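quick q for whoever's on today - can somebody do inverse folding on this one?? i tried earlier but teh output was garbage lol. tokens:
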């Protein structure tokens, strides 16, 4: 595992897992949220996002967490390992609320500079519907993956067991 992409529900813990794996495997970690968001929640232009993303893909090793459809296909092609955290809607919403409380009025370490944690109804609705609207599309994309290590975790217990075996 040298080039790892981590996908999944909002609030599932993609960034936390990326950090854990980065420390465990001594691989640099990149968060799509920190690449996409400029200060004060201003998005970068799509061309700039793709350029920044593609620069990372040129490195010998990387862990990238985040979904971002404009860069996803290239990331899936270049990764040797793909991890999909497909947790229940309730678990993901819990993760979002926990994150909101933990980082209230602060910027998370995995997001762009000067982007204090926020939560709005649009994001909650999108997250609530992720398993219905987005997960099936992700499974479809992943069904075409043949030459890579693919891990799909349905809950934290499965992930923790895998991490435990990985670190042995």
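ok took a stab at it. sequence:
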């Amino acid at each position: 595992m040298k080039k790892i992409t981590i996908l999944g529900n909002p609030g599932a813990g993609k960034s936390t897992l990326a950090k854990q794996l980065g420390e465990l495997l001594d691989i640099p970690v990149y968060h799509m949220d920190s690449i996409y968001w400029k200060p004060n929640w201003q998005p970068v232009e799509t061309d700039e996002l793709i350029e920044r993303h593609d620069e990372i893909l040129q490195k010998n090793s990387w862990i990238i967490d985040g979904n971002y459809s404009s860069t996803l296909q290239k990331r899936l092609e270049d990764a040797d390992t793909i991890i999909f955290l497909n947790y229940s809607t309730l678990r993901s919403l819990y993760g979002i609320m926990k994150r909101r409380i933990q980082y209230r009025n602060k910027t998370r370490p995995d997001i762009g500079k000067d982007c204090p944690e926020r939560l709005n109804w649009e994001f909650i609705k999108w997250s609530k519907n992720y398993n219905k609207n987005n997960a099936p599309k992700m499974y479809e994309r992943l069904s075409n993956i043949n030459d890579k290590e693919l891990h799909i975790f349905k809950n934290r217990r499965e992930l923790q067991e895998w991490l435990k075996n990985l670190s042995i």
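fwiw The chain is about 50% helix and 15% strand. also The chain has one domain: 3-167. so keep that in mind when u check it
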